[in-house]
Specification:
It is a single chain. This protein has about 450 residues and is mainly α. It has one domain: Growth Hormone, Chain: A (Up-down Bundle), CATH 1.20.1250.20. Helix content is about 75%, strand content about 0%.
Length: about 450
């Protein structure tokens, strides 16, 4: 089924669509390799394995593990409305993406330097500086989001689910090498040398991306919009939520699913502590996450293209429930190898579905606005979730965290099935009218 925005573009701007189609294969390749290469660098700063390990060497308070996860979500999601504002009236996206990518590497460099010279600071000073530098990285990473995904929505004008699935597949294969290297470094070297090596590799490998982005081919979108003031841009937020009720329902459900991620940063450190596992198991966990994200990403893409992305959200939320249930009932260490399998499946699903469902809800000329708005409005929930997880562990137990997580996930599945419409079954004009039939 053709998504709403592409039907609209085909009807209004067939010449533009034809020009974009000429660059389809070229952009497919360069975007795919860019995403996969960056995934390689990110594997060395995994918020589910590596960063909790790093924080555990600086403090015993588990709340700080939640703070790091929260900081990533705040930094990545909240600034996207700002990124959307600056690109919404611009018919081009490529060079905005390029320069923010350069700025993003500053945060990675500061993290690598901090870990290299951490002996010059107290643990609390190291933790504080790390949070500052990680925030710089997360914020710049978030600012790219609306421009990057809008570029994809215009450049990848067919088989988007397959595209995101292929991206996950290649990312997983490249990530396999990263995870094997992580395992080797963690087993061969003690802290902090192991992380010094890993963070410098992350910084060095990330500099491939600007060269790939410079080779993107872009056709200016034919709609020239008037420049809006920041006040006007913000003023339209309530109007947008009222006018597009499917979008509002999606935000509520996606927020509930985001709460279900509260335990993700705690599974690995719980398993290491509970079963006295070696630190090298973090590399294995990272490998399983990346490989599962790769393999299931292809499946999610096929399901989304064929049946719609609502079904992907239902199945993904089921995996969240499975991982919480395993954590509650596991009595042997090998059970926990299924947890990173579920985590990878969830991440693969969100990478495939989050942007695609917005593409189908938003008018084509408003894609950046909707992408930025959705991520910014979701950021408080996504940021608070790991903080709640950390507080539950510190004040109660890991079991309490996993039980609360499972309850939220079950509620999310039920509401998604009953309340969320399938956007693809309605035209953009239906959405414009508020989808009165729903």
């Amino acid at each position: 089924m053709l998504s709403n925005d592409l039907r609209e573009i085909s009807r209004k701007y067939p010449d533009y669509l034809e020009k974009v189609s000429r660059n389809y294969t070229w952009n497919f390749f360069f975007i795919l390799i860019d995403s996969a290469t960056f995934s390689f660098a990110l594997a060395f700063l995994s918020v589910d394995t590596i960063l909790p390990y790093f924080i555990s060497h600086l403090t015993d308070a588990k709340i700080w593990v939640g703070v790091v996860s929260s900081l990533y979500f705040w930094g990545y999601y909240f600034p996207q409305i700002i990124g959307a504002y600056f690109v919404n009236v611009n018919p081009l996206r490529k060079w905005t993406i390029f320069w923010i990518t350069i700025a993003e590497r500053v945060g990675l460099l500061m993290i690598a330097l901090l870990v290299q010279f951490h002996h010059l600071f107290t643990p609390f000073e190291t933790l504080t500086l790390f949070l500052v530098f990680y925030a710089i990285f997360a914020i710049t990473n978030g600012l790219i989001g609306p421009a990057y995904n809008d570029f994809i929505s215009k450049s990848i004008n067919r088989h988007r689910g397959i595209f995101y699935g292929a991206t996950n597949a290649v990312s997983g294969l490249i990530g396999l090498g990263a995870s094997l290297l992580i395992q080797q470094m963690l087993n061969r070297y003690a802290f902090p040398v192991n992380l010094q090596i890993l963070f410098w590799i992350a910084f060095a490998s990330s500099f491939i991306n600007p060269f790939l982005i410079a080779n993107f081919r872009e056709v200016p979108y034919p709609v020239h919009r008037q420049v809006e003031s920041a006040r006007e841009f913000i003023r339209k937020i309530p109007e947008t939520l009222i006018k597009y009720p499917v979008f509002s329902k999606f935000l509520v459900i996606r927020a509930l699913i985001g709460l279900g991620l509260m335990a993700n940063s705690f599974f690995a450190i719980y398993a290491v502590k509970e079963f006295n596992l070696s630190e090298g198991v973090l590399g294995i966990y990272t490998m399983i996450i990346l490989l599962t994200q790769s393999a299931l990403g292809v499946i999610w893409g096929h399901i989304g293209d064929r049946f719609g992305f609502k079904l992907v959200y239902i199945l993904m939320t089921g995996l969240l429930g499975v991982q919480a249930l395993i954590a509650l009932t596991a009595h042997q260490a090998w059970w926990f190898y299924f947890v990173p399998f579920c985590i990878g499946g969830v991440y693969g699903a969100t990478r495939v579905s989050d942007a695609n469902i917005i593409f189908e809800i938003a008018p084509p000329e408003e894609t950046s606005r909707f992408l930025g708005l959705s991520n910014t409005l979701l950021s408080p929930v996504l940021a608070v979730a790991p903080l709640i997880g950390g507080m539950l562990v510190d004040r109660a137990s890991y079991s309490a965290l996993f039980a609360v997580d499972l309850t939220i996930v079950i509620l999310s599945i039920v509401i998604t099935i009953i309340w969320l419409p399938e956007p693809r079954k309605h035209s953009v004009n239906d959405v414009d009218k508020g989808v009165q039939t729903l």
